[in-house]
Structure formats: C-alpha cells, structure tokens
C-alpha cells in the first residue's frame, strides 16, 4: 500500500516509515470510571520500562479537567502532581502523553476557545510534558451554527483546530489525534468512502498520528487487510487504541487473558499499539506483559501478506472453538514468534511472584474464569458444559431408582454423579483461590480482584446448590464467539452464562449479587436440607422468632413450640424444597419452601394441627395467657389465611441468625431464596408467598428487599407478602 503524502505529494512506503521510526507501544488510561492513583501510575511506568514499552497517555474520561472542564487551568497542587508524574515517566524511559478531550463543548470557530485550548496545553508543557494528544471520541457530530458558517464539515473544523494547536506547540515529536469515527463500524458510510476520514487523512499535518480501534470499538481481531484500508484513507499508518482488555462497559467482567487476535505481522503496518485495559490497575499485569512480548516479536518489521491464527492452545480455548476466523484470501503463517498461550505462560510466571499463589492454581482457577471479551478459558467453558449436561440429564437420577431400571440408565446415573463431583470440585477450588488471595502481600491486587471473584463464587455456590438439588435454551455461544457484535451485548461474562443455565429467566433479580464491603467475608454454603439438620433449623427459628431477634427467653418451657408453629409443616411434608445456610460452626439460616401451598394447607389442617393439639394441650383459660400459651391456643383455634394460590401457588419461610449471616453478607437471603426458587420453578411454580406477623417490621423489610409485596389486607395479625417467580 503506497499512499500519497499530503504535503510532499510523493509516494511514501508506510511499512518503511514505521520501521524507520520507533514503534509506539504502551498504555492509554482512557477508560470511563475512577482514574488510577498517582502511586499506581508510577508503578505502571516502572512496569512499562521493565517490559520494554515506551508510552503512556494520560486520558482518564472521569478526570474533569481532561474532558468536562477542559478549559480550567490546573491548580498549584495539581501542577505539582502532574510534574511528578512526568518526571517519574521520564526516569523510566516512558513518554507521558497528555491528552485533552475538548470536543464535548468546543466551538471550533471561537478564537477564545482555541486560545484557551492552547493555553491549557502550554501550561502542561511548563510541567515538562513534551507529548500531547487531542481526542474527539464519543462526542456529538453536529456543529453549532457559528461553526457551520466557517467550516464546510465537522472534519474540517477538527483539522483546523488540531493543526493550529500542533504548530503552536512547535510540532512535538509525539502528537496524537483521536477521530470521532475511530473504528470501521463508526465510519459513515464505510471506511473507504467516509468523507470525515478522508478529510482527516488528507488535511491533518503528516507529523500527527491518528488513533484507530480497528473494525469495532472492541475488536476481536485486527487484520492486515483492514489496516491497509484505513492506512490508505488516513495517508499514514494508524496508531491502534486497543480496547481488547477494556472492561468499563461491563462491571461484572474482568479480562486476564493474553493479548490475542493481532498477528505480529501487523507491526510494520502500524505506527504503534496502546492498550486501554481493565479499570482495575493491578488486574492488568498479563495484558501489559503479553502486549510487550507481542511488540518485540517482529522487531525487524518484516512484512508478510498473511495473519497468524489465534493459536490459542487446546488447553485454554473453548472445546468447540476452531481457529481464529481468517479472511479467505489470507494464508496462515505458523512460524510466528508470538503465540498467545506461550506469552500467557511467561506472563504468569512473573505475575505469580506477586500473587504468592501456585502457578496452576492461578492459571486454571482464575485466568480461565476471566479470559477475553469474546471467549472463556477452557476451565470456565468446561464447567458451563458440565452444568448444561447435568441439567439436561437430571432425569437419570430418578430413573435409576425405578424397579425396572436398565443397565444403560444405571450407567447414565453413574456418569451424572461423576460429572457432578467434578463440577463441585471445581467450584470449591475457585472458592479456595478466593481465600488464598486474601493473604497475598499485594492487597491492592486482592482488592481489585475481590468483587469479581466474589460474584463468580456466589454464582457458583448457587450452581452447587442447584445441582445438588437436581441429584436428590439454546446456546448463543456461536453468536457470542463470532466477534460480529461488540461484547457489551453479552453483559456479565462467565457468571452470566452460568446464571442463564439456572432457572431464573423470570426472576433475574435473585441472581444479582453485590460483594460485601469487607473483603475477607467468608462465603457461606447453601445446600439442600437433610433430616439431621432438624434440630439446628429449629434452633435458628427459636433464635430469630422475635422479629429477627432471639426468642429463647420468650419460650423457656417449650423451646420447640415456635418452630412447630412456623416451620414444622415444611420439614414434615416438603423437605425436597428446603435449603439450609451453613458456616464453619454449622447451620445458621434456612430457606424452606412448599411447591403446593393449597395442598399443604389441607395437610396442615388434617394432620399437622391435630398432632400439635395432641402435643400441646389447650390452656385451661383463654385469659392472661403468656406467649407460649398464646401459640398453643392458636393450634386449637387454627384458621388458614386467605391466599390467591392460583397466582402464588407456593409458600416460603426465610430466617437467618443476624450475627452469623445478616451482619456479614446481605447477599445470603437472596442466594438462599434463589436456591428454593430454582427448585420450585423447575417443578412448575410461578409465584410464592409468606406469612409475616403485622408487627414484624425487620422481617418484612427482608422480604421487601427480595421483591415481595403485600397482597390483600391483614387477617388476625398476619400479613401476606408475595412475589412472582
């Protein structure tokens, strides 16, 4: 590809130009969200130096003086801060590029605005900064009336201001420009015929490098063919602003996989690559390390008209994933010196020194869980497949109990048990990793990883509860893996995939968890109820019966009485829908449910209440009763509440010890209810209700936060709360 230089009018070999000049490689802090701290940036400079990368762009979207209030000058304190950053960068052989993003409200034809822009950058230059960038990304494309009277187009306006500022600063060696059409999908109508891009390419001064994110905002792959196309339009090789590891669009995802989808044979066609990585600073070690390896893998700038396949090995990529999709006319070069799997191994070998966690533990349990935007690691994918298989073949466990069971059915049930154990072992391993990371010396890294590991662990805990209960939809992965759509269309990552396999499509709020404030909060176990749990469950009921408070002193003579009243019928007739919450000391909460509340009320009246009347004789008098006698009297004058069981066919009861559950992790009630709801939904329920005493405000609040609302009016001091599932 030989574009024409706009000034000299002579042909310029883009690859040779890139080879002659230094290949730019490093980091752009250009994400939305809380900017990195000064200490983090200084650690970044040290890492970039060690990894042989040379550039850092200061462009945090949420720094108000970078974008929203770009006209405001820096204070003395802020000036000292930036000066210190610039000096720290230089001491590590890193160029700090100060970026400003004025496009949000810049009037291009205003001499005052242009003068303020120059003045702002002049101020930063006095801090020692020698490199600059003007960013016009993510802004409205309509010009104001004043600009329309001066400029023919939006591109003309941006070029005019950028060229003027560039020359005013005496044409710095590094001066970057980010266009408004910064990827192929934003080019109107397309890259080759975009009037905007062609104007930028032909009129922007040749010493200004133009940034480009590839085919999409977040590109699964970037090919030589696509770079040749944009190079011809821009009249210069693009500087890639790479969002492969960016996660600011999805708070549930983190990307710890290697730099991938870009052949090192791209290097001679590019001005450079700057990664815009995870917002969590300490989570970017692998992204940076592997980018550094990639940038050095074709240091001679050798051109080849081909692109390497993804080369993700079988032990990392999805089981059904083939080679990275290539253009049909693009041959594959297997001899490249950069292989993502190998680069990941090298990066991990260095990173585990900071983690103080065994290499295999990190690789399998963490990296595979948080891989890349368009693919999961092998372990995560394997766990998804296992859960899908267990869900589809759960019938095997019931069939194995049949008197007429066949050898094939027995074999299938044994395979089900084996797969179940394998999946649960993986779940426990990930939970164990979260515990190990709590004690690593780099607590900032633990703080960055903790919310993601917690979300994954709570989801997997729900998975464990669900498949344990199973033991007593069309996949959209091909669509997801193609890279044809931006990854923010697939919110939630691996955790979301697990949740989609659970029966919560009509109650998604039950699988929405927030990490506890304290990073060392233990993850409590939720499992199906077993007969030997009865005494512990009764104890929890007694210690929470007084609107969440301990009722031991209220019922000194009959410690089982209140549990017989509130939950005894669940444990008698509906144990298959009951779950307990457990910590290291034992049972500390429960979620008890009944699939058919109407039938349960009939059994309650026919069997349970008579049994309780026999167990607890009626008080001799109806006056002056103590709390125990009032409960006993209620058995002898029992009335079932009026409930719309057609809309809310199931019933539930939740209780948790405050000091061991509610004070530590507010997610537990939601997780426990989700376990019960999963079992109910699989068996056809679509709604549930709970009976709450009118005066129990704290208990009512717990249910309200879980989506319950009052139905009907209170009867005999009891309120009915219900929700759809």
UniProtKB/TrEMBL annotation:
Its EC number is 3.2.1.169. It is an enzyme of class 3 (hydrolase). Residues 23-299 form the GH84 domain. Keywords: Glycosidase, Hydrolase. Gene3D superfamilies: 3.40.630.30, Glycosidases (3.20.20.80), STAT, domain 1 (1.20.58.240). The keyword Cell wall biogenesis/degradation does not apply. It comes from the Eukaryota. It catalyses: 3-O-(N-acetyl-beta-D-glucosaminyl)-L-threonyl-[protein] + H2O = L-threonyl-[protein] + N-acetyl-D-glucosamine; 3-O-(N-acetyl-beta-D-glucosaminyl)-L-seryl-[protein] + H2O = N-acetyl-D-glucosamine + L-seryl-[protein]. InterPro entries: Acyl_CoA_acyltransferase, GH, Glycosyl_Hydrolase_84, O-GlcNAcase_cat. The keyword Glycosyltransferase does not apply. SUPFAM superfamilies: (Trans)glycosidases, Acyl-CoA N-acyltransferases (Nat). Pfam families: NAGidase. GO terms for molecular function: [protein]-3-O-(N-acetyl-D-glucosaminyl)-L-serine/L-threonine O-N-acetyl-alpha-D-glucosaminase activity; beta-N-acetylglucosaminidase activity. One of its GO terms (biological process) is glycoprotein metabolic process. This is protein O-GlcNAcase.
């Amino acid at each position: 590809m030989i574009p024409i230089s706009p000034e000299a009018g002579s042909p310029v070999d883009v690859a040779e130009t890139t080879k002659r000049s230094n290949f730019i490689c490093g980091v752009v802090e250009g994400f939305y969200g809380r900017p990195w701290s000064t200490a983090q940036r200084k650690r970044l400079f040290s890492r970039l130096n060690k990894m042989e990368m040379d550039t850092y762009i200061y462009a945090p979207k949420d720094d108000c003086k970078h974008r929203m209030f770009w006209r405001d000058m820096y204070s003395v304190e802020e000036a000292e801060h930036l000066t210190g950053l610039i000096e720290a960068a230089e001491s590590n052989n890193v160029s700090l590029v100060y970026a400003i993003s004025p496009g949000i409200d810049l009037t291009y034809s205003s001499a005052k605005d242009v003068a303020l822009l120059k003045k702002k950058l002049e101020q930063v230059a006095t801090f020692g900064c020698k490199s600059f960038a003007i960013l016009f990304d993510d802004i409205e494309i309509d010009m104001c009336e004043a600009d329309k009277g001066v400029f023919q187009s939006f591109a003309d306006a941006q070029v005019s201001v950028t060229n003027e500022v560039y020359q005013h600063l005496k044409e710095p060696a590094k001066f970057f420009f980010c266009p408004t059409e910064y990827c192929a999908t934003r080019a109107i109508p397309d890259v080759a015929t975009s009037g905007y891009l062609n104007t930028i390419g032909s009129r922007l001064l040749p010493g200004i490098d133009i940034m480009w994110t590839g085919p999409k905002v977040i590109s699964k792959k970037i090919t030589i063919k696509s770079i040749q196309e944009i190079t011809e339009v821009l009249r210069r090789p693009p500087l890639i602003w790479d969002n492969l590891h960016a996660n600011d669009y999805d708070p549930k995802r983190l990307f710890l996989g290697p730099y991938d989808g870009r052949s090192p044979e791209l290097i001679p066609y590019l001005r450079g690559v700057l990664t815009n990585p995870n917002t969590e600073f300490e989570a970017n070690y692998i992204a940076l390390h592997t980018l550094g390896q990639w940038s050095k893998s074709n240091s001679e700038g050798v051109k080849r008209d081909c692109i390497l396949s993804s080369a993700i090995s079988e032990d990392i990529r999805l089981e059904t994933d083939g080679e990275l999709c290539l253009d049909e006319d693009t041959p594959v070069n297997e001899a490249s010196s950069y292989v993502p799997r190998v680069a990941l191994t090298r990066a991990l070998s260095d990173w585990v020194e900071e983690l103080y966690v065994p290499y295999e533990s990190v690789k399998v349990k963490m990296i595979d869980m948080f891989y890349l935007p368009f693919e999961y690691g092998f372990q995560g994918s394997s766990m998804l497949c296992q859960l899908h298989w267990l869900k589809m073949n759960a019938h095997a466990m019931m069939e194995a109990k049949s008197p007429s069971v066949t050898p094939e059915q027995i074999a299938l049930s044994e395979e089900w048990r084996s797969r179940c154990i394998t999946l649960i072992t993986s779940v426990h391993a990930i939970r164990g990793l979260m515990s190990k990371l709590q004690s690593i010396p780099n607590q900032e890294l633990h703080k960055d990883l903790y919310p993601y590991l917690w979300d994954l662990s709570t989801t997997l805990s729900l998975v464990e509860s669900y498949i344990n209960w199973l033991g007593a939809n069309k996949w959209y992965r091909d669509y997801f893996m193609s890279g044809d759509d931006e990854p923010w269309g697939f919110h939630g990552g691996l955790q979301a995939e697990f949740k989609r396999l659970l029966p919560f499509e009509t109650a998604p709020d039950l699988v929405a968890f927030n990490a506890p404030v304290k990073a060392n909060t233990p993850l409590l176990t939720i499992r199906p109820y077993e007969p030997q749990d009865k005494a512990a469950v009764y104890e929890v009921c007694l210690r929470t019966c007084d609107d969440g408070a301990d009722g031991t002193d209220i019922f000194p003579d009959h410690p089982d009485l209140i549990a017989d009243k509130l939950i005894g019928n669940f444990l008698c007739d509906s144990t298959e829908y009951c779950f307990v919450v457990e910590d290291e000391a034992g049972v500390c909460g429960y979620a008890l449910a009944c699939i058919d509340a109407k039938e349960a009320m009939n059994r309650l009246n026919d069997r349970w209440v008579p049994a309780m009347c026999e167990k607890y004789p009626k008080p001799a008098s109806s006056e002056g009763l103590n709390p125990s006698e009032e409960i006993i009297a209620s058995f002898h004058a029992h009335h079932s509440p009026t409930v719309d069981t057609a809309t809310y066919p199931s019933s539930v009861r939740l209780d948790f010890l405050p000091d061991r559950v509610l004070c530590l992790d507010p997610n537990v009630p939601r997780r426990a209810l989700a376990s019960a709801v999963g079992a109910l939904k699989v068996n056809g329920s679509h709604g549930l209700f709970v009976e709450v005493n009118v005066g129990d405000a704290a208990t009512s609040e717990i249910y309200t936060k879980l989506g319950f609302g009052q139905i009907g009016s209170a009867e005999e001091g009891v309120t009915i709360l219900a929700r759809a599932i």
